[in-house]
Specification:
The protein is of the alpha+beta class. It has two domains: about 1-140, no CATH class; about 145-219, no CATH class. It is about 30% helix and about 20% strand. The chain contains six helices and eight strands; from the N terminus they run H-E-H-E-E-E-H-E-H-H-E-H-E-E. It has helices at about 1-10, 50-60, 125-140, 150-155, 165-175, 185-190; strands at about 30, 90, 100-110, 110-120, 145, 180, 200, 215. The strands form two sheets. A four-stranded antiparallel beta sheet has the order 1-2-3-4. A four-stranded antiparallel beta sheet has the order 5-8-7-6.
């Protein structure tokens, strides 16, 4: 019984990235249980999985202002908030150190994977992998609300399709949106074409070009 209790306790101790023995350059799936924090005492690692992943998230959102001050992801503002509402999780180690370099999180929404949070170490390799893996997921049926540069990249470089009716967008998101349709910037509208007339805003006040989103993937 003593050995069994010790084994169960070891299973509950929060993991660190090195415990996964993930091959270099290979994206692996994580479980929300991997972030469970029941470790107390000197045997606990100084940095565990939530610390390692939080560093990536904080780096990816370092330029995003928060309402209360500072910068970061609105739903993950410290390591203890991971994995939060996200049930689909993945990470990969691309370079030569012993920590992860790329993280993705999402959840199932109306039967589809909705990509949401991202984290990366800022390296070109991690960012390129993030873009390529995101495009592949969106082209295989996942969906994501995107805006700005990443939406532009998914549209112009990867040809990821968009959801272009207000009814379908609201059905997939389960929320009402402030519909825009055609991109208000004539140059962008011309470049994107009629297949990307699905721009909208939601939950962020005034609907201006800077705040617009488009729902990509979902096919």
């Amino acid at each position: 019984m003593k050995l069994l209790r010790q084994y169960i306790r070891e299973l509950l101790i929060e993991k660190k990235w090195a415990d996964f023995n993930a091959p270099k350059g290979k994206t692996i799936r994580l479980s929300p249980d991997d972030f469970s924090d029941d470790c107390e005492g000197p045997q606990c690692p100084e940095r565990d999985l939530d610390d390692e992943i939080f560093d990536l998230v904080q780096n990816a959102y370092k330029d995003v202002p928060l309402a209360g001050g500072g910068h970061g992801h609105i739903k993950v503002q410290d390591p203890s908030m991971l994995p939060g509402e996200y049930t689909w999780l993945s990470a990969s180690d691309i370079d030569g150190d012993a920590e992860p370099d790329l993280f993705r999180g999402g959840k199932m929404k109306n039967g589809k994977l909705k990509l949401a949070i991202v984290g990366h170490d800022g390296s070109a390799a991690a960012i390129d992998t993030y873009k390529a893996e995101t495009a592949a997921l969106l082209q295989s049926g996942a969906m994501a609300e995107m805006s700005g540069a990443i939406a532009h990249i998914m549209i112009t470089r990867h040809g990821v399709p968009a959801v272009t009716t207000q009814e379908e967008v609201e059905a997939l998101l389960g929320k009402k949106v402030d519909w825009v349709g055609v991109h208000p910037n004539p140059k962008s509208a011309q470049r994107y074409g009629s297949e990307y007339e699905g721009w909208y805003c939601r939950g962020i006040g005034a609907c201006g070009e800077v705040h617009m989103k488009i729902l990509l993937g979902g096919g």
